[in-house]
Design brief:
2 copies of one chain form a homodimer. In chain A, strand 1, helix 1 and strand 2 form a beta-alpha-beta unit. With about 220 residues, chain A is an alpha+beta fold. The two termini of chain A are about 30 Å apart. Chain A contains 9 helices and 4 strands. The model of chain A has no long low-confidence stretch (mean pLDDT about 95). At the A-B interface, strand 4, helix 4, helix 5 and helix 6 of A face strand 4, helix 4, helix 5 and helix 6 of B.
Amino acid sequence: MYTLTTFRSVPSFAVGHVRDLRVRWALEEAGQPYDLRLVDFADAATPDYRREQPFGQVPVLQDGDLTLFESGAILLHLGERYPTLLPRDPAARAHVTMWTFAALNSVEPYLANLANLVAFSLDEPWAAAQRPVLEEIALKRLGQVDAWLEGRDFLAGDFSVADILMTTVVRLLDGMGYVERFDRLTAWRNRCTARPAYRKALADQVTHFTQEAAAA
Amino acid sequence: MYTLTTFRSVPSFAVGHVRDLRVRWALEEAGQPYDLRLVDFADAATPDYRREQPFGQVPVLQDGDLTLFESGAILLHLGERYPTLLPRDPAARAHVTMWTFAALNSVEPYLANLANLVAFSLDEPWAAAQRPVLEEIALKRLGQVDAWLEGRDFLAGDFSVADILMTTVVRLLDGMGYVERFDRLTAWRNRCTARPAYRKALADQVTHFTQEAAAA
């Protein structure tokens, strides 16, 4: 049985976007049950937690004696167990690994910079000058992924952990109208978020944080 | 024989920092020779190259029939061949994978944002307001890695691809005085950059770009 660590509660804007979603989704795809371990923000700042997760973040996954952080590493670890997440063929596996890193290093940082500006800083005096700069690079990256998806249903062969990660990355821009400028990207995103495992994982995260908020 | 794709030439500020350095270093650690394939910026924008590297970037590594982009994926791929880069034990390997993603997703984006501001945008009207914001998060991440290095020579057991990646990430702030505020981080960085494989890889990159600039 896996144990997934996430926050006990988060601000309402984060509900549905906490990165435990990536691990929940992968575990649902693999049909694996899991327990939750909950940490408060105060717990996450303690030396004990920092020895486990040096950045004070979530998720952490415990798999027997092994404790892992970084959602990318957790998903590749689960992928080694469940071929539905990561193919066995070495070349196919290398392609999925490639798109796993692409999601987290070539796309996420640029989308996160733009999403953070739009969500939190539009009233700052520097926002007007920064926004077009951040939009340009984020839209460029979205367009590059859109072009890659020409003739493809998923990023690297069949559905894989790379699609899970890239979907959650693209969702950083939900409700901002950027993704919808790209037809193939939008169709792929909709294909991924229509999966029952995604819907179950998202519903479970939302339920968890909503219940914690109601109990607080 | 491996074939490593990099740019034919780059602006002088990028010499010594192009990401092919990560792959060169790993190949030197593994004692593996490689050929270079050179692309111009114009080549990198062509549909043919984008089918290979959808973001128009370098490095790309060709290993027989397999063509890989994303330095993190390339280094994990090489690690599967050479235990000096990635341990065989599954738990030890998972820890290295974790720190590989930590370098590229939990640290690099924040250091890159600060490095880009300091290198390119200090004269912008928004720079004065942005700099302390970007410094705070970058210094926080550096401090978290510094704390992790307490009692450790390397990020995850012996020297590995995680140290290669994190070293090149930390080098984004070279010459800016931030890293040197952290004793363990500085000692670890110096331990990594003292390795003969690093020195050879860096010298080879600098020689390549310097010769191309002289020939242009």
